[in-house]
């Protein structure tokens, strides 16, 4: 049977997924790239043909419409769907996959367009429907979530008997030259960054609880390998929600992301004047959503690749026990933005999200990751994924951290 796949979404990440699938055509025999705007798909297809010699098909699809998705899937008969559209569209695409009996993969969990909140609850609720349809749904196969979940599972399998604390560290030291821009969809990015922070820990009675913080309230300076010291701010990030369920012995998990002062100043000013609002307002007799209007003014993240210089470093810093002795492991991946553009015409943030999406899909099509139901990344054997990362452009490193060694500055 042909391994025909449908990729939904033609932004920066969709571009990377389409390129990397074409580069692995021995597994991805036929590729259809679909988006609401077919012209974006056609541009990507043209670039892929010129740079790799591989042809892919393109199509127009409304990912908000289940009936249209079902009709499209019945016509094209893919073996699986890779969803790199907006997180608002996760549920409609999942429902269409259930109706057609097609495996599903995404890179980010569901968000309601009218509520600045993201969680796995509604996607996890589809587990039984996926089992009944005899298909697999793989959630969050990006980098964070995605590769960071796999790093945790790999650490649990090979380095620890139990992991007590995890800090997920996301550093983008790239410079695109604009006064202010976002590295992925502006609405999603700004919602995430301006929301209250949260981290999970066990209290003195051993009961797990979520601790809420003000946006950017907690900052630590981490010394990132190959990059250096960067201000890192505690955020809530979706992979923590699943990791607290699946990592043995966990007592605390946090997520930190780096931001420069210029970015934070711009974001605070926009927030103060209401430009981050997600509710409709009236402007000259028309209804507009401030965040959507702002997104039209900002540079398209897919256009940043040619301008972006520098590196990313994303990983996990884990402490726990092995053979009743304390142990600390730092697993991380460093990527150069310019190398990403040279390979697939995208900057590093899109690359580090898109490559893991392709890897997850590849493992599903090869039968190495093939279950029935809905799964998060850390529930599957991490060794296959870690091996593919080294092959597919995301080589990783492991540091055994000595007791007197610290990556926190000051």
Summarize the entry for a quick read.
By secondary structure, the chain is of the alpha/beta class. It has helices at 12-23, 38-52, 66-76, 90-100, 121-124, 127-133, 147-158, 186-194, 239-246, 261-272, 290-297, 337-344, 348-365, 382-391, and strands spanning 4-8, 30-35, 57-60, 80-83, 103-106, 136-139, 162-172, 197-202, 208-213, 219-224, 228-235, 252-258, 281-283, 286-288, 311-322, 325-336, 373-376, 396-400. It contains 14 helices and 18 strands.
Describe this structure in words.
With 410 residues, this protein is α/β, with parallel strands linked by helices. 35% of the residues lie in helices and 27% in strands. The chain is built from 14 helices and 18 strands. It has helices spanning 12-23, 38-52, 66-76, 90-100, 121-124, 127-133, 147-158, 186-194, 239-246, 261-272, 290-297, 337-344, 348-365, 382-391; strands at residues 4-8, 30-35, 57-60, 80-83, 103-106, 136-139, 162-172, 197-202, 208-213, 219-224, 228-235, 252-258, 281-283, 286-288, 311-322, 325-336, 373-376, 396-400. The strands form 3 sheets. Strands 7, 8, 9, 10, 11, 12, 15, 16 and 18 form a 9-stranded mixed beta sheet that branches. Helix 7 crosses helix 14 (382-391). The longest helix has 18 residues, at 348-365.
Fill in the keyword field for this structure:
seven-stranded parallel β-sheet, 410 residues, 14 helices, 27% strand, alpha/beta, globular, nine-stranded mixed β-sheet, single chain
